[in-house]
Design brief:
Elements lengths: L1 H25 L6 E6 L3 H16 L3 E2 L8 E6 L4 H20 L4 E6 L5 H10 L5 E3 L7 H10 L4 E3 L20 E5 L1 E2 L10 H5 L3 E2 L2 H13 L4 E5 L16 H9 L6 E5 L8 H9 L6 E3 L7 H6 L6 H14 L4 E8 L6 H14 L3 E6 L17 H24 L5 E9 L6 E6 L4 E5 L8 E9 L4 E5 L7
Parallel strand pairs: 1-2, 1-3, 3-4, 4-5, 5-6, 7-10, 10-11, 12-13, 13-14, 17-19
Antiparallel strand pairs: 8-9, 15-16, 15-18, 16-17, 18-19
Helix pairs in contact: 1-5, 8-9, 11-12, 12-13
The chain binds S-adenosyl-L-homocysteine (SAH), iron/sulfur cluster (SF4) and FE3-S4 cluster (F3S).
S-adenosyl-L-homocysteine binds next to strand 13.
Length: 474
């Protein structure tokens, strides 16, 4: 049984490898360059690392600007309309550049390509796009590039059966010391506003042994911090032949030597188990940060969103998390302007913000996505009303964040230095265990290390501090 599953995978790997080699030979000595623009969530960011890995193995190097690149690639998102409009806008802009540089090729991939209307539109009205492929065709990227360079028509490959998981694609990471690892793909939740289940397909978990093997290899390469990725990590492993829980996976990842921080994204409140809260408390490597999308604080709206929890249940989870891990930072996603929402519902959301005391939040105005149930609800909210509510939510969030951060002044946070500060070269920017953004004086040799930093100032979205007592790990 095992043999059967493994064999086609490695065959696909070999095909990809052969295609990469052929590309490298084909363009040898031509200094081919690429530029990838990534929109959307961490899944897309991680996919882009793999696309960059494949291009790098094929001998392409990264261009500073997409206008000068031989291959321009957009890894798209369709969760909100804005992200889509941005892509069409850029395509219009790039058309002129392509006319001047006939060597330029434009490729599009990612979630937007899984929408049939988008592909139709690209095929009809954007003939200067050379390659279009979907979220499940990543492992064929090198072969698709070959097809693109051979053909003088638009190459489109979409594959709507999201049943496979291909292991071992090469990848290029932004940082040497931290890496993302997919633990599952797709989503089965069908929140009524959300297009992700339609474009990313059904939920599939990777086997724990494949995940652990990947993390061990990363640790051997010098990676210290791991972020486990999935649309709904709490339901990880439920559909595996040998089911395993997300909490169990955390205990196993914790055992891997060399890894000192483990993070994860995203959790759905409905599946949050006591076992996971215990794992957060008992595994010192698991960071005290929990991203727990709220969406709305109104029970009525939550039911219409198909979220399967109530305001009281949500607040109870936050209380239990804080009880188990007192220093925990809780962050969230909030949406307003959902069909049928009223002033009263918004008040409920504000009251959850005040009670939960979020440390940060992504806030969105509801965007109508064709094909989702909510798109056809009759009581759509006018944009102006949603904007007023959005501002109110923002203001309340900022008040709460200011209060939370003010409590951190004078405290020491353990910050992994990630990069030189973009405004002041004598400062470093990093993330505390709680995932808070912290700026502090330091030098580039400290990048990648965890430094104790005493917090002096808070600026709502970030903290400023000074290092104390020297590095705590070298
Ligand atoms: N799987 C994650 C979220 C993925 S999408 C979860 O369930 O928590 C990230 C965020 O985008 C969501 O949490 C939601 O707040 C927002 N979002 C999704 N669909 C949207 C839509 N149609 N309009 C506006 N925001 C949306
Ligand atoms: Fe979308 Fe809901 Fe799935 Fe998150 S859980 S990806 S919001 S359907
Ligand atoms: Fe966007 Fe796709 Fe992620 S729609 S939010 S990039 S899963």
């Amino acid at each position: 049984m095992r043999e059967e599953i493994m064999a086609p995978r490695s065959e696909r790997g070999l095909q990809q490898e052969a295609a990469i080699k052929r590309l490298a030979e084909r363009f040898s000595g031509q200094n081919m360059t690429y530029r990838i623009t990534t929109l959307g969530c961490q899944m897309n960011a991680h996919d882009s690392e793999k696309l960059a890995g494949i291009l790098s193995d094929a001998g392409f190097t990264e261009a500073e600007r997409e206008e000068d690149a031989d291959l321009v690639l957009y890894n798209t998102c369709c969760v909100r309309e804005n992200a889509e409009l941005k892509v069409y806008g850029r395509l219009g802009y790039l058309k002129g550049y392509k006319r001047r540089n006939p060597k330029m090729r434009i490729a599009l991939c990612g979630c937007m390509m899984q929408e049939p209307t988008v592909v139709e539109k690209l095929n009809k009205s954007y003939p200067w796009v050379d390659l279009v492929f979907g979220t499940h065709n990543l492992y064929r990227f090198a072969e698709l590039l070959e097809e693109m360079y051979d053909a003088d028509r638009q190459v489109i490959e979409l594959w709507d059966k999201a049943d496979r998981i291909v292991e071992d694609l090469p990848s290029i990471r932004k940082h040497t010391f931290k890496a993302s690892v997919n633990i599952m793909f797709g989503c089965d939740n069908f929140c009524t506003y959300c297009i992700v289940p339609y474009v990313r397909g059904r939920e599939r978990s990777r086997k724990p042994e494949d995940i652990l093997r990947e993390i061990r290899t990363l640790a051997d390469e010098g990676v210290r911090e791991i972020e486990l990725l999935g649309q709904n990590v709490n339901s990880y492993g439920k559909n595996l032949e040998e089911p395993v829980s997300f909490a169990k996976l955390l205990y196993e990842v914790s055992k891997i030597e060399g890894i000192d921080r483990i993070r994860f994204m995203t959790s759905h409140p409905k599946d949050l188990s006591d076992e996971l809260i215990a794992a957060m408390r008992d595994c010192p490597k698991v960071c005290p940060h929990f991203h727990l999308p709220l969406q709305s604080g109104s029970d009525r709206i939550l039911a219409r969103m198909n979220r399967h929890y109530t305001k009281a249940q949500y607040l109870d989870i936050v209380r239990r998390l804080r009880e188990a891990v007192p220093e925990i930072a809780v962050t969230t996603d909030i949406m307003t302007g959902f069909p049928g929402e009223t002033e009263e519902d918004v008040e409920d959301t504000l009251s959850v913000i005040r009670e939960a005391r979020f440390d940060n939040a992504f806030t969105f105005i509801y965007s109508r996505r064709v094909g989702t149930p909510a798109a056809s609800y009759p009581d759509q909210i006018p944009e102006e009303t949603a904007k007023v509510w959005f501002d109110r939510i923002h203001k309340t969030l900022e008040d709460v964040m200011n209060a939370r951060n003010t409590e951190r002044i004078g405290k020491t946070l353990y910050v992994r230095a990630e990069e030189i500060n973009s405004h002041d070269k004598s400062m470093l920017t990093g993330r505390s265990a709680e995932n808070l953004l912290v700026h502090f004086k330091g030098d580039p040799s400290q990048i990648g290390r965890i430094i104790p930093v005493e917090i002096d100032e808070q600026m709502t979205y970030y903290l400023i501090g000074h290092p104390v007592g020297g590095p705590c790990n070298a």
